[in-house]
Amino acid sequence: MATTRRYEFGTNESSHPDSIRATIAEFISTCIFVFVGEGSVLALNQIYKEPGSSASELVVIAVAHAFALFAAIAASAHVSGGHVNPAVTFGALLGGRISVLKAIYYWIAQILGSIVAALLLRLVTNNMRPEGFSLSVGVGAVHGLILEIGLTFGLMYTVYATAMDPKRGTVSTIAPLAIGLVVGANILAGGPFDGACMNPARAFGPALVGWRWQNHWIFWVGPLLGAALAAVLYEFVVIPIEPPPHQPLPAEEY
């Protein structure tokens, strides 16, 4: 992550080895996260489905996502910053913590990683159709959108506080764990209503491979808006503005 706010296109990063390594890291980490997250949903809903066990299923899904995201971020944080989420990359872009070109590279890698994970799941499960995300009965599109905004706001705020804040100090060592935990907690809170996506890449791969597009736009617009709100708030309100360096007055002006 950048230590100072900067807004630039990043032309010099287009073919830099560090950018390529970071892009590959985002692809692999997102693939790992989506494979485990969607795999846990498929296993519970299509293999171990038992009446009256929805609460325990939700806990298992939340824990699977939390552990997988923890591992994915920890494995890529030192290479790419461990975004593993187009909404997080969007927030970092708005906050001046990443260049435009690198953000585009990350988005492509994250989406491709999600698609590959969903394809692998369909292959290893003997053609089970990925489920992705959908609204529960009685939950309207507006309700789902607001929920996704709120859940992703909490996620992005945690990312900023633990991984992007220039003055985060030693708390950065627990950033992967904190981010994984907030995702798991958000799934427990919002999972029964819309699955608690918070990640457009997590939604896109399973939706494409499983061909499930109903209300899919919610899982893009909501996370992007939530991440944008958190990033702008943290970057321009929470992070203190550094005063300009003091310039000593000439001796004759004392």
TrEMBL record:
GO cellular component, one term: membrane
Topological type in the membrane: Multi-pass membrane protein
Alphabetical list of PROSITE patterns matching this protein: MIP
Top-level taxon in the UniProt lineage: Eukaryota
Residue stretches spanning the membrane: 20-44, 56-77, 104-121, 133-157, 177-196, 217-241
Classification via InterPro entries: Aquaporin-like, Aquaporin_transptr, MIP, MIP_CS
Predominant place of localization: membrane
UniProt-annotated location(s): Membrane
Keywords for this protein: Membrane, Transmembrane, Transmembrane helix, Transport
Keyword Transmembrane helix attributed: yes
Identification of the protein by name: Tonoplast intrinsic protein
The species this protein was found in: Vigna angularis var. angularis
Organism taxonomic ancestry: Eukaryota, Viridiplantae, Streptophyta, Embryophyta, Tracheophyta
Gene assigned in the entry: Vigan.08G150500
